[in-house]
Amino acid sequence: MAKGSTVKVRLESDAGTGYRYYADRPTRAEYKLQKKKYDPWAVNPETGKKGMHVMFVEKKMPPHKKN
Fold it and tell me: What domains, with CATH codes, occur in the chain?
């Protein structure tokens, strides 16, 4: 059985903290990946404490660094 082709993507926090996750998605997908995940740096406006679930949106991966 052949394995489907996937591409690595970077998920960046919508809260603007700069926190990111890395994930895989199918190369044939015609959509951008969006997930609700935990951001330990985001400040909750109700309690004022750090850490809350926010939306993470797919961004372009940075170019590969050559030695």
Answer: 6-59 (2.20.28)
